[in-house]
Amino acid sequence: MSAVSAPAAAANALAARFAAVPPPVRGALLMTAAALGFSCMNVIIRAGAQELDPLQIAFFRNAFALLFMLPWLLWAGLPALRTSRLKLHLSRSVIGMAAMTCWFYSVALLPLAQAVSLNFTVPLFATAGAALILGETVRMRRWSATAIGFLGVLVIVRPGMAEVTPATGLPILAAVFMAAAVLIVKTLSRSENPNAVVFYMNLFLTPLSLVPALFVWRWPSWETFALMLLVGLLAVISHLMLTRAYTHADASAVIPFHYAQLPFVALIAFVTFGEVPDAWTLSGAAIIAGSAVYIARREARVAQARRAEPAA
Hints:
By secondary structure, the protein is an all-alpha fold.
């Protein structure tokens, strides 16, 4: 066996073993890996923010992510990008730019565990948006879980008990924009290739993020440049694993593993920056994550009941 074919054979053997794993387990493993990837990316963003403005980091993240998507495009060809919903892709990218800006600044300014915990509110805002914007039926149980989740935000922020700065609101504002993007992706996923959705996001985000980055531009050191390259790579891999996790199992089965981000980021932030999350942050994160998991499971039961209705 040649030196070139040996890695390919090993990759094929690994893929075969992974395919033999039950789909729900594959989904859980992919979601956990995505959570680890996003956690590492956030820590690297924090490190890069010591030299670069978050607006510039956002540009590098998008530009390098687009670069790492090009091999897929060469393999799949331009037909994979066919779409009749270009305006919706652009809208998703504009909203994504707002979310990314808020999120990158919150990662730079807040303790990482606190920022990640407050950003767990994305499913809560998405539930409210699905009801108010998409007209989906959201009954009392899910509204109650959403309300409990927002109580978890109050536990973390503790208004009146702890100092609340403008930076504290950034991960929550990022969650609002991310939830809006989730609703758009939910619509796009009905007709679009998942890889194409990620590609179009990076394609539009690169020029969108370049404009504000030019106002704060400074050339990074080679070390920071390498970190930005890694951010782009992690962004692509993590998003693809996240997307693939949903293809192997129901969202309600894999979403709990998304919240592995908190222990991952808490451990890495402790080792890297010496940050230790307080009990309020951990308690509030548990409330928010628990509410989001309940909402996901409730949505899955409602969807399953609807699918069973015609057969009854």
